[in-house]
Specification:
This protein is an all-alpha fold. It has one domain. It has 7 helices and no strands. α2 packs antiparallel against α3 (about 65-90) and α4 (about 95-115) packs across α6 (about 130-135). The relative contact order is 0.12.
Length: about 150
């Protein structure tokens, strides 16, 4: 499985989520749920805008030399991805959380693939993935601290 195939799996999962129906209160092909500002078309635009960044998250993990370096790369890519999503949806937050989560998941997967094969990870039910996400995500607390200081 190559980088493009892994990144495409993230895209496929976002499409599957929005197309799953019924989802009372949430956007699906049958209803906008509680959302007046978004529909399936908005989600598709968002997915299309985010898709190129999923491969970049994975590539950052595959090439980073250190965890702090990887965190900074993921952060930089994530900001660009979010801007692309917000532009594509004309300011509607459809996938901010998914973008954030996929950044860490794909980055951590790439990081782990530096030392072991995808087959090895599958054989262990991806058990190392979540500890790797936690290790990489430690940098987030500093971002939130800085954010609260900026808002003071």
């Amino acid at each position: 499985m190559n980088e493009q195939t892994i990144a495409q799996a993230a895209v496929t999962s976002l499409r599957a989520e929005v197309l799953l129906a019924p989802k009372p209160g949430l956007v699906d092909p049958e209803s906008n749920g509680a959302h007046r500002d978004m529909n399936v078309t908005t989600f598709e635009a968002s997915i299309h805008a985010l898709a190129p960044y999923f491969g970049q998250y994975l590539h950052a993990g595959l090439t980073a030399a250190t965890v702090p370096q990887l965190y900074q790369q993921l952060r930089t890519i994530g900001v660009k991805a979010e801007k692309a999503m917000m532009t594509a949806t004309v300011g509607v937050n459809t996938h901010r959380g998914a973008n954030f989560s996929f950044g860490f998941l794909l980055g951590a997967l790439g990081w782990l693939l530096q030392k072991q094969s995808l087959k090895q990870l599958v054989m262990h039910d991806f058990a190392p993935l979540f500890p790797a996400v936690a290790q990489i995500a430690q940098g987030v607390s500093g971002d939130f601290r800085d954010l609260s200081e900026k808002n003071s």
